[in-house]
Write a structure and sequence with these properties.
With about 350 residues, the protein is mostly helical. The chain has helices at about 5-15, 25-30, 40-50, 80-90, 90-105, 130-140, 180-195, 195-215, 225-235, 240-250, 255-270, 275-300, 310-349, and strands spanning about 55-60, 65-70, 75-80, 110-115, 120-130. The relative contact order is 0.05.
């Protein structure tokens, strides 16, 4: 048995690994405008390519390949945005946006069809067509390099076996006559790029939300929370993520799940800017104030019923009659007592 001299390498060689393959050149060619690799698009493309890779049918006795078959049942791959989101832990919108970016690069094409599984019509079902020609170009050829901070000719590198090796082109020729002047100028350009705010703006912007989290009492930024923060930045915007954390700080609720509930509410309402959030807040305050005014007006008006004047006077009449009656009875009793006393005195005599 052959050995590489490294036990770990030999052990991995014994594993039967299957699944998605991501060529290194994809990280070079599938990028955002800020020159960062588009990771969501890359992993989704790897999954699509996996399903388009053929399955080989072999003869059981000879081991020879008898034929190939496709992995999916229809003429094109049928997948939903939700299925990609669940598989890779991203939102439905992030999956959709990544697929749209792949389509814009010419790597695939979306088809929306109406199907009838079990006799029930379903419309707008997503089918994905893979463009093999563009895929081959993205996999084995480096695309045209264009960066706003780099002046000079564009360099197209074809059939590069290593991403760090740049072949000679006819347009730029070779670097000749390296003098002190040229070297000094190039070094100055490097310093300008490092210190240029435009070249570091994206990097600083990426750190802002994470720094705000750690510097405002939310605690240490755990890896799973950092992943969620990054997803919300992609789904809404970094400005809204920071704004939601500011609201949490103002309400003294320094928990990420509280921030996430705010972001989920904004996502459901399709807010994209702070202006949208403020407009909704003002609308809510106006409705709240109007409800309070209506409640106060109802309390002030109350329920008033008209009562006849004689109804109030009846109690006074009763009290007068009762008072008079009590006085008369008292006098009668007094007379009786006096009469009895008088009779008693006469008898004694």
């Amino acid at each position: 048995m052959f050995t590489s001299g490294n036990l770990t390498v030999d052990a991995v060689g014994q594993l039967h690994l299957e699944g998605n393959t991501i060529p290194h050149m994809w990280y070079e060619n599938i990028r955002f405008e800020n020159d960062k690799p588009d990771l969501n698009a890359i992993i989704i493309l790897a999954e699509i390519v996996y399903w388009y890779r053929p399955t080989y049918v072999k003869d059981e006795t000879t081991g020879h390949v008898k034929g190939v078959k496709k992995r999916f049942s229809a003429d094109l791959l049928q997948r939903s945005y939700d299925s990609f989101g669940i598989q890779f832990g991203i939102s439905k919108r992030q999956a959709r946006d990544a697929i749209v970016r792949l389509e814009n690069k010419g790597l695939l094409k979306r088809h929306f069809r109406t199907i009838n599984p079990n006799g029930t019509p379903l419309s707008n079902v997503l089918f994905i067509e893979l463009n093999v020609g563009t895929l081959e170009s993205m996999t084995f050829q480096r695309q045209m390099v264009s960066h706003p901070n780099v002046r000079g000719c564009g360099v197209e590198m074809l059939d590069v076996s290593h991403p760090n090796v740049t072949p000679m082109t006819t347009e730029c020729q070779t670097y000749t006559e390296i003098t002190t002047e040229i070297t000094t100028r190039d070094l100055n350009n490097v310093d300008d790029k490092v210190q240029d705010p435009a070249s570091t703006e994206v990097y600083q912007k990426q750190l802002t939300a994470f720094q705000f989290y750690e510097q405002n009492g939310f605690g240490a930024l755990a890896s799973h929370v950092a992943y969620k923060v990054g997803n919300w930045i992609d789904d809404l915007s970094e400005v809204l993520v920071i704004h939601a954390m500011k609201l949490a700080v103002e309400n003294n609720v320094l928990r990420w799940n509280y921030v996430e509930k705010i972001l989920l509410d904004w996502s459901n309402k399709k807010f994209r800017t702070i202006e949208d959030v403020e407009a909704d807040r003002l609308r809510f305050e106006a409705q709240k104030n109007q409800r309070q005014k209506n409640s106060n007006r109802t309390k002030q008006q109350g329920r008033q019923e008209l009562v006849p004047e004689w109804f109030d006077k009846r109690n006074e009449d009763n009290r007068e009659s009762q008072s008079t009656g009590q006085t008369m009875d008292f006098e009668a009793e007094r007379q009786k007592v006096l009469e009895m006393l008088g009779k008693g005195s006469s008898n004694e005599k």
